[in-house]
Amino acid sequence: MTPAELVSALNWRYATKSFDPNKSLSDDAWQALLDSLVLAPSSFGLQPWKFIVVSDPEIRERLRENSWGQAQVTDADKLVVFTSRTDMTPEDIQRWVNRLAEVQDQAPEDLKGYAGIVEGFCQRMSPEARHNWNIRQTYIALGQFMASAAAIGVDTCPLEGIDPSGYDHELGLAGSGYATCVACAVGYRTEDDKSAARPKARYVQSDVISER
Where is each Nitroreductase domain found (predicted)? Predict the structure, then answer.
């Protein structure tokens, strides 16, 4: 992808309001988007999230009721619910350190100093602050997911107009250590979605980017 192609894809994307329920992603396109979630960056690499792909039509109907009736929840080919860890415990950190050691062919004991730095950073925050930090990390994954979708010509719509507690109930998240923070509908726009034809309104570069 050239720089011009990237900018073109980002100009092409918008928060799709009307999805064509008869259009589906190819297996390759969907796997690439799943990979974009797995590869999303996070602070210290902790990945304080789980992404729930909701395919059951009945569950999606109930989630729509917890989304102010937004049709994207049921009409889009895919629906991904982004959940964040409600805390970040020493056990969470050790689990990540174990995985890091496995991938990098090290002994977990060799990463003891690193684990101590991460744990010290996390323990300076309250549980509520850690949860909010995890939510902010999860939005990084959402951004990468949406940009990746645009790059391969797939439409998305981030959904914050939802009742997170209602989603948690429908998805059985109570006691799981995870809670809903945002959802994203994925698929292809209908030809008559008026939002697609609206000019993209953004501040000019000099209003939002400065140099020192």
Answer: 11-188
Burial of 140 (0-12, 13-18, 19+ CB in 10 A): middle
d(CA 49, CA 142): 11
Q: How far is CA 104 from the centre of its chain?
A: 26
**Measured distance CA(137)–CA(122) in Å, rounded:** 14
Element (H, E) at 185: strand 178-187
E strand intervals along 89-170: 155-159
Q: Are 81 and 114 in contact (CB under 8 A)?
A: no
The pTM of the whole model exceeds 0.85 = yes
- Domains, in order of start, for the chain: 9-88+131-195 (3.40.109.10)
SS3 percent helix, strand, coil of the chain, rounded to 5, is 50, 15, 35
Q: What is the pLDDT along the chain (212 residues), one digit of tens a residue?
A: 999 999 999 999 999 999 999 999 999 999 999 999 999 999 999 999 999 999 999 999 999 999 999 999 999 999 999 999 999 999 999 999 999 999 999 999 999 999 999 999 999 999 999 999 999 999 999 999 999 999 999 999 999 999 999 999 999 999 999 999 999 999 999 999 999 989 999 999 999 999 99
Burial class (CB in 10 A: 0-12, 13-18, 19+), 56: exposed
